Amino acid sequence: MQAAIYGLAGPDLTAQERALFRDADPAGYILFARNCVDQQQLLRLTDELRSISGRYDVPILIDQEGGRVARMKPPCWPAFPPGEAFARLYRAAPSSAIEAARSNARALALTLRSCGINVNCLPVLDVRQPGASEIIGDRAMGEEPMQVAALGRAVLDGMASAGVVGVVKHMPGHGRALVDSHKARPVIHSSQELEIDLEPFHAQCADGDDRAPGLHGVGSRAAGEPLAQGDPRHHSRADRLRRLADQR
Fold it and tell me: What is the C-alpha to C-alpha distance for residues 71 and 68, in angstroms, rounded to an integer?
C-alpha cells in the first residue's frame, strides 16, 4: 500500500485512473466537487473505488463542512450550517449548542454514508482570531479554545455515530493566519498565542484522536527560526499516512 491519498479528475474513473489506482494501491481517496454529481453517480463511484482497492473500509474522504465549504451541494444534497452557527448558539446556551452540533454532524454523516463516503475532513478546530484572514472566518466554532474543543468533540461523536470518521483541522494556528494559505504561505509564530490555538487539538488528542492534517504554512518560534523537523508540534501528512499504512 502506498502512503498517499489520491484524487481523481471527474465524476467517473478513466481507464488510466483505474490502471494507476490498481498499480499504486493508495491508502485512500479524496473527492472534490468535480467528482460529485448526484447520489446515484457518487455511490457508483465510491463502490468502484472500493472494488479497485479490494478493501471494504478503504478511506474515502471529502471536505463537507457545511456553509461555504461543501463539495456535495444543493439541490442534490442538503445544505448544512457553518461552524459559526454553533458558536453563536454556544454563547447563549452551551449545552444546547453541543447537542445541536452533534445532531447536525450525525445528519451530515448519514448523507455521506448514503453515498459511500466514510471519512469527513471535519471538525474545524481553528480558534478564530480578530484581524485574521477570512479563509477560516465563519468556518470556525468560536474564539475561545475550550468552546471550540467541546463543539469539535460533539462533531466527531455525531459523525462517528453514523459510521463516518472525522479529521480535525488545520493545526497549528490557521485561525490566526494573516493570508489565505491557498494563495500564499502563512508564517505562524510559536508563542504563547500559538499555545491557545493548539488547545482544541490537545483536547482531542487527550481523548485518543490522531486525525490532524497540517496547515499549509511555515511554523516559527518567537525568535523567528523555523520549527525543527522533529518538533512534536509539527507532523507531516505523510507521517500520518505512513502510520495508517503500517496499521493495515
Answer: 9
Question: What is the CATH classification number for the domain harbouring 198?
Answer: 3.20.20.300
Task: Print the domain residue range for 7.
Answer: 2-247
Angle (deg, nearest 10), helices 39-53 and 15-24: 40
Q: What's the structural domain count of the chain?
A: 1
Q: How many helices (H) and strands (E) does the chain have?
A: 7, 9
The pLDDT tens digits for 68-96 are: 999 999 999 999 999 999 999 999 999 99
Other Cβ atoms less than 10 A from the Cβ of 85: the count is 18
- Residues 125, 150 contacting (CB under 8 angstroms): no
229's CB contacts (< 8 A; 6+ apart) are none
The Cα 41–Cα 241 span in angstroms is 28
Is residue 130 within 8 Å of 185, Cβ to Cβ?
no
